[in-house]
């Protein structure tokens, strides 16, 4: 069995952003040479997420509105965590959206359903953050 590991770096110019990282992850799969196995892709920061969904701008706006309704950024004073920082909402948004995805690799391709894409969700941006891609298989 082979294994492969790579860190992808992202720098968002906004506090919150959804970035389609499918191409970068597919490039990792090509580099690995793995044809059958599993791919793990996870955010390595507690205020960011990796998830699978459709790459449709209206849906992305809906996700942003929904997350903001569940864990609004302002007022900062509503969160105890914010006595030290100002990103409690980002921690909660990450909890909702999840840390990682696992995708089957079949015949050298990500075994997706229709419209599935991998996204990096940034909830406390304006700095560089990492995503881990780990593959195991043959």
Describe the structure.
The protein starts with a strand and ends with a strand. Helices cover 25% and strands 38% of the residues. With 138 residues, it is of the alpha+beta class. The strands form two sheets. The protein has a five-stranded antiparallel β-sheet with strand order 1-8-3-5-6, covered by helices on one side. A three-stranded antiparallel β-sheet has the order 2-7-4. It has one domain: Jelly Rolls (Sandwich). It has three helices and eight strands, in the order ββαββααββββ. The longest helix is centred in the middle third of the chain and has 14 residues. The radius of gyration is 16 Å and the shape is elongated.
The main β sheet shows up as: 5 strands, antiparallel
The structure class reads alpha+beta
CATH structural class: Mainly Beta
Number of domains: 1
**What number is the mean pLDDT?**
97
**Helix count?**
3
Q: What would you report as the Rg, rounded to the nearest angstrom?
A: 16 Å
H/E element string? Answer: EEHEEHHEEEE
* Helix share bin: 25-40%
Strand order of the biggest β-sheet: 1-8-3-5-6
- Briefly note the CATH topology name: Jelly Rolls
Flag low-confidence runs: none
CATH architecture: Sandwich
How far apart are the termini?
A: 5 Å
Strand proportion, as a percent range, falls in: 35-45%
List the main descriptive attributes of the protein structure presented here.
Jelly Rolls; five-stranded antiparallel sheet; 8 strands; elongated
